[in-house]
Hints:
The protein is α/β, with parallel strands linked by helices. The protein has helices at about 10-20, 45-55, 70-85, 100-105, 125-135, 170-190, 225-235, 300-305, and strands spanning about 1-5, 25-30, 35, 40-45, 60, 90-95, 110-115, 125, 140-145, 155-160, 210, 240-245, 250-260, 270, 275-280, 285-295, 300.
Amino acid sequence: MRIGFAGTPEFARVALAALADAGHVLPLVLTQPDRPAGRGLKAQASPVKQEAERRGLPLLQPRSLRLDGKYPDEAAAARAALAAARLDVLVVAAYGLILPAWTLAAARHGALNIHGSLLPRWRGAAPIQRAIEAGDAQTGITVMRMDTGLDTGPMLLERALPILAADTAATLHDRLALLGAQMIVEAVPAWAEGRLLERPQPAEGATYAHKIDKAEALIDWAEPAAVIERRVRAFDPFPGSLLMQGGEPIKLWRAEALVDAAAGEAPGTCVSAADGLVVACGQGRLKLLELQRTGGRRVSVADFLRGRPVPAGTVLGGRPLK
């Protein structure tokens, strides 16, 4: 089949590679423009761009697809390229740009989206992180036909995946990316041949996964230990979870919630530094396991404390107490 592809990060790259390996023709790939990244802030190609160039696939990087927007020439060029590609299906995965109605009609069988949740739960930009943060027992992949709403289109395939107790956004992302790639390879020919039935999303249970903001990184010790621990995993690798110690920002990458522990001390107080670093929370206590100083690397709390002791009774900074 002739498949157009629109995507940007690693989640999308895995799907693009799977479609190419399945033998489909990919006459056009859309991805976002190169962005500054790393310490030197050099322009860096997206994972999808790197995969497309490695395979010699035609590539466009418009800054917008809105014909009435800020970059109408780039949008018009993309529209002409999509029309010339004579697509059977357009596959979209974490593209990051709004798709106008004309893009959804650019392929003979419409546009299919690979979404990293069990819709209608966690529509939006950060479904993987929000599922972990909320303490969901499972998530999954939904392949849907796109409409003009935000992740509101009818569903074609859904498969669940358990969220493990140790899952971070990174580990869950990788498992979902593989599942999504397998599902889209299955879904594309089945949809084109009429072997998949559309199911409208149920009205109940819809939630929105807001984009992760760096401001969310700062830990609020007044929250329950279990909530903080989930957020630590949800924000790994971005933006990380941040505490303040002696005026210095420290990233917390791994922790254990001691939910049955009494927390008589003020939230943020270091209760013990003998076996890890135990901090009082609004409910329960949090045992810190892996920390990172600015410019340093992730280290165990034992290694961290050897270079920077934190006496019991020290109050760690975070968000103002509620």
